[in-house]
Amino acid sequence: MTTLFLPAPTKPPATTPPEELSSLFHSLNTSSIDEEGIRMPQAIIKARDGSLTVMAAESVSLMYAGLALQFRECDPQEIIFGWDRFALAGQGLQFQDFLSVHHWRYGAGWRYGVINYQFEPLTVRPIAWDHSFWSPVLNTETLRNFKALGILEALS
Length: 156
Hints:
disordered N terminus
């Protein structure tokens, strides 16, 4: 069974800077690390009116579908989401476990990063933006999925 959660939007302070959403995303996701990793990564959508929607999905396809729906309904200013992943040797990460970070802002476009972590002992790194190995992979994946949903042009 797959689940998509779309809680009621909340209103952040009017002065929320763009980097604050990245920090909130990092905190929200890394607080749920256990021996299985990050079981259901969270996405955050900030509408132009300043409201925030937090979303989680059990599959990649549900997450992209939910993000497309949010894009169509809330006229986003900013979107940030990610996937729990496993790195291989030679991919430039200290630990095998990481969360990909896909971040879009109106007028600025996409940027990508990784949150590298391990469970035992719990160690969590800050977001490493523009990772040499993973950022190009994430860019290709993100654009392909949004193109398939027919909203890529609107996010450009």
